[in-house]
Amino acid sequence: MKKLLIAVVLTTASAMTANFTSAAMAAAPQPAPKKPSPDASGASKDSKGDKDDQATYGRTFDDGEHTLTLTNQKGQEGHLLVKDKAGKVIYDGPMENDTHFAKLPAAIAAKLQRLVQKLTAAEDAEDEEKPNASATLHVGDAAPALAPSKWVKGAAVEKFEPGKIYILEFWATWCGPCAEAIPHLTKLQKRNADVTFIGMNCMEDDQSVVPAFVEKMGAKMGYRVAMDDAAGNMAKTWLSAAGQNGIPCTFVVGKDGKIAWIGHPMKLDVVLKEVKAGTFDAQKFAATEQKEGAGEEEIQAQAEELLEAGNIVGIDKLIHDHPKMAELQQAKFKLLMQKKQFAAAIALAEKLCDSQRDNGDLLYQIALELAIPNNPDLKPGLDVALKAALRANEVAAGNPAVLAALARVYFIRGDVEKAIAFQTKAVEKEDEENENRKTLAEYQAKLPGAKGTAAPAKPAAANAPKTTQQEKAEPAKEEAPPAEEKVTLHIGDAAPALKPSKWLKGQAVDKLEPGKIYVVEFWATWCGPCRASIPHLTELQKQNADVTFIGVNCLERDQTSAPAFVEKMGDKMEYRVAADDEEGSIAKAWLMAAGQGGIPAAFVVGKDGKIAWIGHPMKLDAVVKEVVAGTYDSKKAAAEADAETKVQEQLAKAMEEGDLAALDKIAKEYPQIMPAEMLAKIKFEVLKQKKDYAAVIALGKELCDSQKDNAELLNEIAWTMVDPENPIDKPDLDLALKAVQRANEITKGERFEILDTLARVLFTRGDVKKAIEMQTALVVKADEEHAEDAKKSLAEYKAKQTGAAEPKSPAEPKAPATAATPDAPAAAKEGQAESGPVLAAAINRALEKKEYRDNPNILNLMAWSLVDPENTPAKPDLDLALKVATRANELSKGESAEIMDTLARIYFNRGDVDKAIEWQTKAVDKSSANDKEQLTKSLAEYKAKKSGQAIPHK
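^ that's the sequence the OP posted. Answer follows.
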């Protein structure tokens, strides 16, 4: 369902590429990483080339306050020199991951870290765009021969024919980014039937798996597929010759038989449009990509700062300013989870499941975040978690980490058999013994009649390393095994014994001594939030020298990894570190006994040897301060913790049973847990699930007043009334109109999804013409993710146009905000403007933006919206239509029959029938077989007008 169930709607962002390797997945702000390709000798080179073998290279970055110089000498690691504007050396030393400025003040270190990111991002961008010195195949060269060993799907292509455009994409079944690109290529092939797309399978360890993979993909891989030979000759002739060190990699072959572009398939959209129009400039495109890449690094750095500060308003502003960056939406989701705004997080997650449906990594992360056991607040999100995990599995083509995540979701939902089925697949996909097997045993132990209890297993999340951005969106916890056992360790109880298998750092603590304060924190190397909390614990240890901080490593899949990790952290992890045994004895005695469902988790042990506090380590500051001062009230803390647990249980029960009175009671007694906005969303959703539509409408009317500034909820109320996929009995269309108009007013006519709802409401009320006007505008406005749905709705409205009924309400509805094109103005009020002038004003604003002004397809849509004979607006600006269509024709170099058809219609509407016939004749001559019949009918219409005959019926 394209509308959210509950609040928080963000501007849609285009799907970004993600990395699904055979063993792990990681969200990445840069293009998907590529697997090294073998050279002739069988050796591998990474994507950086041989820069380390050069005598010296260097780069300097100056932001006005600091100068950073990064150099690299043969045989040495990167060296970083940082000076302030006075020339004073701030840092002079090796450039190592995460340890550049460990000895500097935190504020300076953070800023310099961001500057280094800019520096290295610029360097990476330059390396990516810089031609490989050894490359022999470049843009502008004649395309090599096409010589696959076998055609797996579609008709064989013997050679590149002059006058045709070809897309040749190299991929492999093991390559996650390649799997990500398949749906995108299929979508492009459907939209460009005159272009031949070829997926060239290469670098396969076992070529026998390819036909089965392609057959399984079916229509999802809707283009020709071929296979390289066992010797990899196609890869050598194309990839290696072009200096391309990884896949997926795409070559565009132009009509002249020459290479027009080489790059990542997810960047094909703009390239292909311009190649077809004959306007593509490879050098200009590369320069733009490099500039945009550097800009994204800066935005990501800003997002990291905002995440650290917990600044959700700042994140929202970044999203508004940069709606195409999916990472920002992911960051907001993490931050909502961190702040325990679970209803909003679930709503956003559902939105992202639709708008980012090809971003498998994001969906995977959503599934993991929402599938946390023993959290009643997240129970409503399990449906979204399942939806995300299922789609991620489609995109990832059976990646074991995703399979394990899907199994985890089913397990928490109570479907143990499905959990076992998918976990078994995850195990089968792995080459060696791993934690997936332990988790499978855990699930099997839960089957009816199963004997014994499975050993605790690290969750599927452990298989997926986290990015820096993900780690900083804390203090969310990584999921630990479901804590099914009864909680036996509470605040106020005596602390259990601490008997680690090994001390990894610092002096051993044989026992917890009376009169001393201890902080015992549980962590793992694979856990992003744990790594994020390490510097915080170090800082607290420095501030509280009389408190003993102990980090207990637990739930590790490979216990040999912890010592190396601790050693690498050095003085960043400046407190005692111990390791749990293989049986997880300490984790069982502390974590699981206390019912803690995730890590990191910290325990404060007071001077009396009793547990004073249990919680997330990022919340330790005030607790430790009060415990040290002797003012901490552990009894009060215990009572509050117990009370919150009971409230959460009551809330879960009330939501499950649909008990609105109980929800009201909880909200009244515990407003800090359930504020008014959350109560409204939950009650509306509960009533919908109960299908009590009379109550839904009654509550919707109430919320239109009490939540009149909540655009997302108002949009949801309106959509509920008109949702074609989930129709309700006797919908209140007046309520729908009132709610969506208010939502549109709040958002100033700038939100696609709200405008889309408004068009649907108008259509359902019977005002088909206005619905078509608005939906036509939205088709122009829609980005790639929304375009298909927008066009379907428009086609539906047009199909009903003939004989459409008048609006059901006797009063003409207030003129809505209209978005004829991107950046359309807010709606004109009733009587202030006709549809034609509104469209014209919006088009003129859109023309101020280069991306629209230089796009012939969008220009053609704009012009056509002013003369569409099936939906002609009132008082159309025909001068503007002619100007826009002429520009579109210039950009397409007179090769587009569709644009010529628009020009002919404009001239016809202007009364210049001769020119209309002239342009329509050209359009017919240039048209494809599919379009020729319709274009010929229009030509007959114009000729009939010229001769004074009756116009043929269309």
